[in-house]
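Regression test case RT-17, inverse folding.

Input:
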């Protein structure tokens, strides 16, 4: 019985305190999160207490940012086929707008970077090699 109580308390504690597998701040209100497995990695915007908005769906594997933009790479994942590492999507997030990112091809990404005047110095600095 004592073992059961200890296990129950540990499980309850993880549920109450939201201990996810990955919770990394990108900028002030943008976070990389994955709750149970790395292939759940996504980018969320948290504008205030008890508010959140999904910006980039799973599975994000590279991220870079500056004061104005967040760039990311992701692989698509679905419940039938799982993670598809043969396809890479690119994302540009305007930090001030906090709008959901539309997946782009590499060509579209490069065009959009020029259009938005994203600095050439902005690179992918956080890399999750297990997901690459």
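Golden output:
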């Amino acid at each position: 019985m004592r073992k059961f109580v200890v296990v129950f308390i540990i499980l309850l504690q993880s549920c109450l305190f939201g201990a996810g597998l990955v919770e990394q701040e990108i900028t002030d209100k943008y976070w990389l999160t994955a709750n149970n497995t790395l292939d759940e990695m996504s980018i969320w915007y948290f504008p205030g207490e008890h508010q959140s908005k999904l910006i980039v769906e799973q599975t994000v594997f590279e991220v870079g940012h500056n004061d104005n933009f967040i760039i990311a790479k992701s692989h698509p994942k679905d419940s039938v086929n799982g993670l598809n590492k043969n396809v890479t999507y690119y994302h540009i997030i305007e930090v001030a707008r906090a709008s959901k990112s539309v997946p782009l091809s590499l060509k579209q990404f490069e065009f959009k970077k020029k259009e938005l005047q994203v600095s050439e110095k902005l690179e992918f600095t956080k890399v999750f090699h297990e997901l690459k």
